[in-house]
Amino acid sequence: MLALPPPRFTPCDRCGASVERDVADGHVCERERLVEYALFQMRDRIVSFDEDLGAWLDTPQGRFESFYASYRRLTAG
Question: Residue 1 falls within a domain, yes or no?
Fold first, then answer.
């Protein structure tokens, strides 16, 4: 059986950047890359946020919280 050599690059677990295996231990993640990677990992949750919020606002707790927020705005001033 033919064994393939390991790939030259590997993805960073923290930021997803492609890093050479030889220098992976010395890799320092860029702050912007960390944020972009975190957003990428949450893309499904971000897309469904409006739908999830609407569903929650239809629950008794959601209706109460909506009412209470309106009430607090009216009585705050």
Answer: no
